[in-house]
Amino acid sequence: MGGIGVDHAFLALERELAVFLRRARASSGELAREVHPELESAAYGLLMRLEDAGQQRATDLAAYFGVGKATMSRQLRALEDLGLVARTPDPADGRAFLVQLTDEGRARFRRVRVARRARYARRLAAWERSEVAELARLLHRLNSVQVTEEPGQDAASPQE
């Protein structure tokens, strides 16, 4: 095997991240359906980004999530068809559009987000507040390294 030993810490990390990501994907589907029964799971992350960052160009959203413009356009069109987002002309560039949550989209998303946070709080009720903060700090650090190593990619995928 080329003299490379198994690093059990990284093996354990790989295993736990795989389980976490599998569960996160399943959860995203459930959350998306709570926002709207016809919503794709990948769209939940888009709604979160629009809620957190405000109106964005589709090209900026595509870059943030590390997906192609065609993929982003398709996802945004679906959200627009459901009445969750709206496009308005970008005053800085007449050829571009800004995407933002509609009032209905914002209300639906916030309702689900509050419920999601309550689930996190219940699941981590036995944890010290400092442990939750440390987990958030470490995940942020991991996400930051991923962005640095993979330009144009962000650790927050549209699925999560």
- Portion in beta strands: 5-15%
Report the structural category. mainly alpha
Order of strands across the main sheet = 1-3-2
Which percent range fits the helix content? Answer: 55-70%
Rounded to the nearest angstrom, the distance between the terminal CA atoms is: 36 Å
How many strands, what sense, and barrel or not for the largest sheet? 3 strands, antiparallel
Report the uncertain regions: 151-160
Radius of gyration: 18 Å
Encode the helix/strand succession as letters. HHEHHEEHH
Q: Taking all residues together, what is the mean pLDDT?
A: 87
Explain what this protein looks like in three dimensions.
This protein has helices spanning 8-35, 43-53, 58-65, 69-81, 103-123, 129-149; strands at 56-57, 85-90, 93-101. With 160 residues, it is mainly alpha-helical. Strands 1-3-2 form a three-stranded antiparallel β-sheet. Helix 2 crosses helix 5 and helix 3 (58-65) crosses helix 4 (69-81). The chain is globular and about 55 Å long.
Record the SSE blueprint.
Blueprint lengths: L7 H28 L7 H11 L2 E2 H8 L3 H13 L3 E6 L2 E9 L1 H21 L5 H21 L11
Antiparallel strand pairs: 1-3, 2-3
